[in-house]
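Work Package 3 committed the consortium to producing structural models of liganded targets before the mid-term review. Because experimental data for this complex are still outstanding, the team generated a predictive model from sequence and the ligand definition alone, so that downstream docking and mutagenesis planning could proceed in parallel. The input record is reproduced below exactly as it was submitted to the modelling pipeline, together with the SMILES string for adenosine-5'-triphosphate.
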Amino acid sequence: MEKILLIDDDEGLLHFLSRFFLRKGFDVTALANARTAIDAISRENFDLVMLDYKMPELNGLDALDEIKKIDAKTPVILMTAYGTTDLTIEAMKRGAYDYLVKPFDQMDLTRIVGEALAVNRQMKDVVGFPVADPPPPSFSKTKGTLQIIGNSRKMQEIYKLIGQIAEKDVSIFITGESGTGKELVAKAIYHHSRRKEKPFIAVNCAAIPEALFESELFGHERGAFTGAERTVIGKMERCDRGTLFLDEITEMSLPLQAKLLRAIQEKEIERVGGSGTISVDVRILAATNKDIEKEVEAGRFRQDLYWRLKVISLHIPPLRERAQDIPLLVDYFLDRFCTEYNLAQCFIKDSALKKLSAYSWPGNVRELENCVRRAVLLSAGNVIAEKDLMIPEAEEEKRLSDLSREQLLNRLREKLENIVPDILRLSDQDIHANIIELVEETLIHAALRECGDNQVQAAKMLGISRNTLRHRLKKQQDRQTE
Ligand SMILES: Nc1ncnc2c1ncn2[C@@H]1O[C@H](COP(=O)(O)OP(=O)(O)OP(=O)(O)O)[C@@H](O)[C@H]1O
Ligand SMILES: [Mg+2]
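The resulting structure, written out as tokens with the ligand in place, is given here.
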């Protein structure tokens, strides 16, 4: 249950707000005295603070300073009857999340509180990831409320990269198909950066109507356009000294891209309808699931902006290219959902796990997560069987055993193409011989396993003579003892 702290010496308003939030299911603490409230904040964690500006003893701005000293992350909404722009700017500079001018209507209240709580969750859901190189065996125990899971080599490279770049104060461009974990990685970077005590704000560029976007990003002055009744602080300004995550950045219009580039280069912004510039210091993390190079080529994304943003680029591979991560992810989601739904620990049958591992997951980790969530909710008892998994039938037909020879070969080729660059990096001499040996060794061991170590049968399966098989095995042993 999220905890809201209300601070106001006006008993009437305090009562109204308490009831309003209690009815919405929040845990509410209402205090009439700022000093008592500051004591409460030093003892307890709140998710949101609503602070009156004008109080006896301590005014809102000074109270804000003290609150921010104790807890820099919890969003504070200042309530004021004196809605001057100067006061607003001062409050924002000192780290208030937003302000409400009394008397406020319930719509504004609900919207601003909703946003502030979302930002609070983004900042406080710490994302942990295993330390790469070497990965400790029990890495999923890494601290954090959320985890990046997976120990495939591709993921280990990502952990390593996050570790290397998180603390460097540069822009990062994250690419990857939908559902691969771009936002999760962005949060992990933030939580491991030097800006971790400052705001993290995520903006989904695809979700904001073009007409509102500029104001959303840079803010607007009161009266800047019809309907602009109050001064609004934009995301960039609100994020000063923090990290701004621009998700689906390719959805941004070209004119806005130009303004963003300017803001990044000049480190200053201008509110819509404003007369001066405001300096901002924001680290930008950008993400897209589109082929960004193609977008640039097609003239839909400014090349200069792209260059600015991709000081470092980070690509998250689709789940089908790291299927060995599936069992770990399934375990992790089982754990999480059983706890979330207050169920006894669930287990998954081997056959069901096999089915999950063979599926191609076009919606990547998000699709797997939803599939496990459904299975946890639908399975009778605490064992998940094949029938509890809802994987599209059409896909099921494509399971490995049913693939045609040609499809299988194509799949194999695809996989090889994926790993060849790594192999080439691995060795600099005798590449051809080394790879052939590696393939042969893998084949022979797989065949032996299939045939319960019966060499005659394994040789038959591989289409080689028993002598050849023994010869190769001996050679391998010799190599190992070298
Ligand atoms: N490696 C991972 N370990 C654990 N959870 C993951 C992992 N990757 C993704 N997830 C989970 O999958 C879901 C989707 O991840 P996220 O929102 O980060 O993807 P995305 O790449 O931003 O997708 P989109 O392009 O659709 O916005 C989230 O619930 C996230 O927590
Ligand atoms: Mg996303």
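Reviewers should note the following from the model. Residues 130 and 138 are 9 Å apart (CA to CA). These observations will guide the Year 2 experiments.
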